[in-house]
Design goal:
Blueprint: H1 2-6, E1 10-12, H2 22-34, E2 44-49, H3 68-82, E3 94-99, H4 106-117, E4 124-130, H5 134-143, E5 150-154, H6 163-172, E6 175-179, H7 186-189, H8 192-201, H9 205-213, E7 219-221, H10 228-246, H11 248-264
Parallel strand pairs: 1-2, 2-3, 3-4, 4-5, 5-6, 6-7
C-alpha cells in the first residue's frame, strides 16, 4: 500500500512464493480500492507463471506432476484469487501475465503460452515473456497467435543493455520492461549524463538514472525499492524531470544529455 500511496500505479509480482508475495499485492489492491485511493482501471497489475525450475516444489501454485498447460491454469487460478479485487472474483482480472522465462523446449514454451492465451482478453488483458534473448524472441514471436505485449529483461552492460531486443520491441510495438536497472549498472550510474541530470534536478543519481531510462523508446523501468522515502523521492523526481524537460529553455540541454545517454546504451541517435 505504501507504493500506491507514494504515486506508483503499476505492480510487478509473480506466482512464485520463493521470492514473491502475490497475496500482499492483492491485499494492498483491495485496501486501496476500498479506501477510494484509486479505481481498478488506474492501476496496472502484472504477475508471472514461473516454471518448475524456479519454484520450491512444496510451495509452487501447481502440482509438479501436472502437464505444462495444467500448471499454467493452476498458476493463473491462484493469481486471480490472490489478486482479487473483492470477495466476488467474477470481476477480477490481471492486466498482464508473463512467462517468467522460456521453458526447456520450444514445445513446452508454446504449451505454456497457449494455455495463457485461453484467458485473453477477459481474465488476462495482455501477455508477455521475461528473460529471453533476441534469437529466441524472434522465433517465439512468429510462432504464437497472441503476440507478447511486454518483454521483461535484465538491463545491463553484459547484454549491451539489450539494445537489439529493445529495437525489436520498437519495431513490433512491444513494451520493454527493464530490471536490474540500478543494481547491475554502477558504471552507468556514475556516467556523465546521469550525473548531469542529478545535478540539474537536484535529485539522487538513482532517480536521474530512472529519468533517462524511461526516456528510451518503449521502455519502462522496474523499481524494487521497499523504502518509503525513496519511493516518494523517485516519484517526485520523475514529475520534476517531466516538468523541467518540457520547458523550451531546457530542451536543448535535455536532448544533448539524452543523446549522450543513448550512445552509452547502444541506441541509434540519428
Amino acid at each position: 500500500m505504501q507504493a500506491f500511496g507514494s504515486g506508483f500505479v503499476a505492480v510487478d509480482t509473480a506466482a512464485q512464493p520463493r521470492h514473491y508475495r502475490e497475496e500482499g499485492v492483492g491485499s494492498a489492491l483491495r485496501q486501496g480500492l476500498a479506501e477510494g485511493a484509486f479505481v481498478r482501471e488506474d492501476v496496472f497489475i502484472q504477475t508471472k507463471y514461473t516454471p518448475l525450475d524456479g519454484q520450491d516444489r512444496d510451495t509452487a501454485p501447481y502440482k509438479p506432476t501436472d502437464s505444462i498447460a495444467d500448471q499454467v491454469r493452476a498458476s493463473v487460478t491462484s493469481s486471480l484469487h490472490n489478486l482479487r479485487t473483492d470477495d466476488d472474483e467474477h470481476n477480477t482480472y490481471i492486466d498482464c501475465v508473463l512467462l517468467h522465462s522460456p521453458l526447456d523446449t520450444v514445445a513446452d514454451t508454446l504449451a505454456a503460452w497457449n494455455a495463457l492465451e485461453e484467458y485473453v482478453p477477459h481474465k488476462i488483458r495482455h501477455l508477455g515473456i521475461s528473460n529471453i534473448n533476441l534469437n529466441n524472441l524472434e522465433i517465439f514471436y512468429d510462432l504464437v497467435q497472441i503476440k507478447p505485449h511486454v518483454i521483461q529483461n535484465r538491463f545491463f552492460s553484459k547484454t549491451q543493455y539489450d539494445s537489439d531486443v529493445r529495437r525489436f520491441c520498437v519495431q513490433k510495438g512491444m513494451v520493454y520492461q527493464a530490471y536490474w536497472t540500478l543494481t547491475a549498472n554502477p558504471a552507468l550510474l556514475g556516467s556523465e549524463p546521469v550525473l548531469k541530470i542529478s545535478e540539474v534536478l537536484g535529485v539522487e543519481k538513482e532517480a536521474a538514472m530512472y529519468c533517462l531510462v524511461l526516456s528510451l523508446k518503449n521502455v519502462v523501468a522496474l523499481n524494487g525499492t521497499t523504502n518509503l522515502e525513496r519511493m516518494r523521492a523517485d516519484v517526485d523526481a520523475i514529475k520534476n524531470w517531466q516538468a523541467w524537460s518540457a520547458e523550451s529553455d531546457n530542451r536543448r540541454m535535455w536532448e544533448k544529455v539524452l543523446a549522450d545517454f543513448m550512445i552509452l546504451v547502444g541506441d541509434d541517435v540519428s
